């Protein structure tokens, strides 16, 4: 079998592997908290303003469209993750269904996505934290709060510090970090519910007219509903981090599907309510350009104290996004290292059941990025990597249903052909709606990835060396 088409056997994938295993410590409440923690973050706190600026009040449709594509991706993830409960997420499914080369591209894209999200959120958190500390009279030198892209800046020390703290938490153990994550998620949800409760009394339906001032949009048109949906997509993904925890789940057949689908339902409903409350409370143009639109709306409503509490909750709870994505990134590295596509020393698991080596390696990389790069540079490519992974998951769902219809499925996606098609088509349309610069650098990244694969990984994988039977 040619190296570009060889596939891992699902049965071999599920067989016990050599070396220490990840500990099974998670149940569905932990997984839902992991998903909600990853999804609810800088997206809803900042991107609602960006989306409203592109689509006007019709950003409600943008949220619904992004939510629809992500919901279909979530159903595909739920079916595939319960069939293949192994660390690696979309990379693992692609390896078993679409072949090694496609799996490498998906894994390489996920590395891009997770690394940039962790770094971008750390930089965003730093901005909130520095402002919060300034308000308390704790002023850090500017040289230590921004990277060298700003005159006088050296390193964004708070961004590096929060990554170090989250990494230490992950090294303590999966269950311990998941429990704290659940507590912080509750803080975020309460803050958003509080925003809705304050904003709704000021609701004015006149703010929804004109509803669609910039039209619906289309591929390559970077305004309107579709352009907003392509950006707001950032606010939804994160549930895929749940699938990376499959190997550490007590009852993956039940818990993974509840965690993935449940977190998407909760977040979609929450986002739509928050968006409606925000637009109803204030005209779109008043908050579209703000980096903190929800806090701005509260201040314009005369609720300065509530705005401060919302900012404080962001500082306290945004690290849940870091935790979820750093967790997922390390598990994707682990899966690729186990398969021999990355150096196998990265696959070592500590006595606490944690992939310590790869967690520390990942933290060093993302901390370096967060310390010296700008937020917009970090976030610009994250969506493209996610869209590639979601497309592969939708395709894997369809291909596996056709190729192996009788394989046991603990969770079955309803209308699988429609779910897979919506997922794939939506990802292509969203990708074409991204900025041309983003598309270009995504292709450059994967070009580099193919050079690495053809030059080293294709010859060092377990399948290449005959250490595992191909599927």
Descriptive key words:
471 residues; mainly alpha; Amino acid/polyamine transporter I; globular; amino acid transmembrane transporter activity; transmembrane helix; transmembrane
Précis, in short:
The protein is an all-alpha fold and 471 residues long. It contains 20 helices and no strands.
Give an account of the 3D structure:
- The chain is mostly helical and 471 residues long.
- The protein is built from 20 helices and no strands.
- It has helices at 10-14, 28-39, 42-55, 59-83, 90-97, 100-135, 157-172, 174-199, 225-232, 240-243, 252-281, 284-287, 293-300, 304-317, 319-338, 356-372, 375-379, 382-403, 416-433, 436-460.
- The chain crosses the membrane at residues 31-52, 58-80, 101-130, 150-172, 179-200, 220-239, 260-281, 306-328, 349-372, 378-402, 414-434, 440-459.
- It is a multi-pass membrane protein.
- InterPro entries: AA/rel_permease1 (IPR002293).
Average residue-wise pLDDT: 81
Tell me which CATH architecture applies here.
Up-down Bundle
The name of the CATH superfamily reads Amino acid/polyamine transporter I
What is the CATH class name? Answer: Mainly Alpha
Helix content: 55-70%
Largest sheet: none
Structural class: mainly alpha
Transmembrane segments: 31-52, 58-80, 101-130, 150-172, 179-200, 220-239, 260-281, 306-328, 349-372, 378-402, 414-434, 440-459
Pfam family, one: AA_permease_2
Protein name: APA family basic amino acid/polyamine antiporter
Main location: membrane
């Amino acid at each position: 079998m040619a190296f570009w088409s060889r596939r891992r056997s699902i049965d071999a994938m599920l067989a016990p592997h050599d070396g220490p295993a990840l500990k099974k410590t998670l149940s569905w409440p932990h997984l839902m908290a992991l998903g909600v923690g990853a999804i609810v973050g800088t997206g809803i706190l900042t991107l609602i303003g960006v989306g409203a600026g592109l689509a006007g009040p019709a950003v409600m449709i943008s949220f619904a469209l992004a939510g629809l594509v992500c919901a279909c991706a979530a159903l595909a993830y739920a079916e595939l993750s319960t069939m293949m409960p192994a660390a690696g997420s979309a990379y693992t499914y692609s390896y078993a269904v679409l072949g090694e080369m496609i799996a490498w591209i998906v894994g390489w894209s996920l590395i891009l996505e997770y690394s940039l999200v962790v770094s971008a959120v750390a930089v965003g958190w730093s901005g909130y934290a520095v402002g919060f500390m300034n308000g308390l009279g704790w002023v850090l030198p500017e040289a230590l709060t921004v990277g060298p892209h700003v005159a006088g800046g050296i390193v964004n020390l708070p961004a590096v510090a929060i990554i170090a703290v989250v990494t230490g938490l992950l090294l303590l153990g999966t269950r311990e970090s998941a429990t704290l994550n659940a507590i912080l998620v509750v803080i975020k949800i309460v803050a958003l519910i509080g925003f809705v409760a304050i904003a709704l009394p000021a609701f004015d339906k006149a703010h929804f007219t004109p509803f669609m001032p910039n039209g619906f949009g289309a591929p390559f048109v970077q305004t309107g509903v579709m352009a907003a949906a392509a950006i707001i997509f950032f606010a939804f993904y994160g549930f895929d981090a749940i699938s990376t925890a499959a190997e550490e789940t007590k009852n993956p057949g039940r818990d993974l599907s509840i965690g993935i689908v449940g977190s998407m339902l909760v977040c979609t409903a929450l986002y739509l309510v928050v968006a409606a409350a925000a637009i109803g409370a204030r005209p779109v143009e008043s908050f579209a350009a703000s980096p903190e639109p929800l806090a701005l709306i509260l201040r314009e409503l005369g609720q300065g104290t509530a705005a401060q509490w919302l900012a404080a909750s962001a500082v306290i709870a945004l690290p849940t996004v870091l935790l979820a994505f750093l967790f997922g990134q390390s598990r994707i590295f682990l899966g690729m290292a186990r398969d021999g596509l990355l150096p196998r020393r990265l696959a070592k698991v500590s006595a606490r059941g944690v992939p310590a080596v790869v967690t520390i390696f990942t933290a060093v990389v993302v901390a370096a990025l967060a310390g010296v790069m700008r937020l917009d540079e970090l976030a610009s490519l994250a969506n493209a990597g996610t869209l590639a992974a979601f497309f592969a998951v939708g395709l894997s769902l369809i291909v596996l249903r056709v190729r192996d219809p009788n394989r046991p499925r603990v969770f079955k996606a309803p209308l699988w052909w429609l779910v897979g098609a919506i997922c794939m088509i939506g990802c292509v349309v969203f990708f074409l709606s991204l900025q041309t610069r983003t598309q270009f650098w995504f292709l450059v990244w994967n070009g580099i990835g193919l050079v690495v694969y053809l030059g080293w990984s294709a010859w060092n994988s377990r399948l290449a060396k005959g250490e595992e039977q191909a599927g």
